[in-house]
């Protein structure tokens, strides 16, 4: 690897950098998120082809390069893998996948269709021409799902089920027709990088970890590691284009080891102006078209939050959440309406088979808070106490128990 200067990023300097980051315009809006993301082992050596010799750069300079990047145009192919350690969604996921049939709400609503990105490996095609034009396509075996945003108008189309969805950008949950794409667009490496950098501070080590080639582009590797114990996140690595500062690949490794939890990166990328035809769409003859306001009306009828497509209403009596701790070991505490937890072992009316199933879902734990059950994935864990409180975070089981104890 080509040598590079490394630097610990302190809370003070990071604050300035994050401010600049927030001022930079991103290429494609956040999705998954959800991450969840955005929420993204991707062919482990994805498009890597050597360690190019590049000028030395410090971590601070590389973060500033990302923040200053104003690349407005690109097109390319990306592979995204999410491995949270969850059971396969099986047929449920298939109903939302491109060509998966007319399941769900009977539309190509992005907030339902993009659920499939929460697990497995996926190939995406991306194009962007400024903040007003983006296109994302999820490639299936025999079908394609496309989401197109063009100056405030949103179209989505599933070629397998021949279903289409149409909305103005504000109806799709953006609130801004001119400059924001539809809510639910999957995150690019740049946006995943932004989330990681926003968390950097005195709890975080940020260094330059050599160089790499991604999608034929020379890049620096920015390595972000928690300095706190108790997080399920081991490290975040971001490959940053050496020329224009655009993140090309994002990898989140768990502290428990093994393959990445999220790995998203370009296999091909072009920073020229995409063809204008990519952002135009007319529903094919015979396609079933669902308007956003139709889903909104159906959502209001069924009790969804504000009638928005794909969003569930907050339960009546929901008490919100409080955050315990800081940095990488932050834990959210949520009050469950009515204070109802999982049924206690031997509870009246709970069949033995049902109890066995509940026991298999998680691990029973005890502490000064009382008792409860911990549900674990490779990234996010949750503790539900028997008196109906939930503690959740990207932290270990022991950290969750300590958080619950401290809240008593």
UniProtKB/TrEMBL annotation:
Entry annotated with the keyword Signal: no
Transmembrane feature ranges: 26-47
UniProt feature coiled coil, ranges: none
Alphabetically ordered keywords of this record: Lipoprotein, Membrane, Transmembrane, Transmembrane helix
Entry protein name: Outer membrane lipoprotein-sorting protein
Organism: Streptomyces fulvorobeus
Lineage: Bacteria, Bacillati, Actinomycetota, Actinomycetes, Kitasatosporales
